[in-house]
Design goal:
By secondary structure, the protein is mainly α. The chain has two domains: 70 residues, no CATH class; 63 residues. Helices cover 80% and strands 0% of the residues.
Length: 133
């Protein structure tokens, strides 16, 4: 976008479209974050003006900090994807299955060994995400 002339109508239209997208998407993301975080912490989507304003200020400070540090979005997505992947694909299902079998009384040593191997594979995949070949 910066390589194009300011007088180019297509570049201007693209910049205005990006600005419109930013103005409309950021509040939507704040709404999603607010309902999830406040619902988890306070058991309500709207705990009050000051708590919501504080959460919005923290999210905005975080986004401004990340923009000021000029981080590559691919690195951020790689880390968040790896952490989300290990938790949602390996840790949570294994933990739920082990706890369910323990509660039912059907857990035996092989269960723990098998689930330990699955977790070890998940941790190995997690570590391999950050190894440059």
């Amino acid at each position: 976008m910066q390589a194009l002339k300011c007088s180019d109508i297509y570049a201007f239209t693209a910049r205005m479209s990006l600005l419109f997208q930013l103005i409309t998407v950021f509040p939507l993301l704040l709404l999603i974050i607010r309902t999830q975080v406040c619902g988890l912490l306070f058991k309500t989507a709207w705990p009050g003006f000051w708590k919501v304003a504080t959460l919005n200020a923290l999210v905005m400070a975080l986004t401004f900090t990340l923009a000021a540090l000029d981080l590559q979005i691919s690195s951020v997505l790689r880390f968040t994807g790896a952490i989300g992947g290990i938790s949602l694909i390996f840790a949570v299902p294994v933990a739920i299955d082990v706890l369910t079998k323990r509660k039912e009384g059907s857990a035996w040593v092989g269960t723990y060994v098998l689930h330990g191997i699955i977790m070890a594979i998940g941790i190995l995949f997690f570590i391999l995400q950050f190894v440059n070949a």
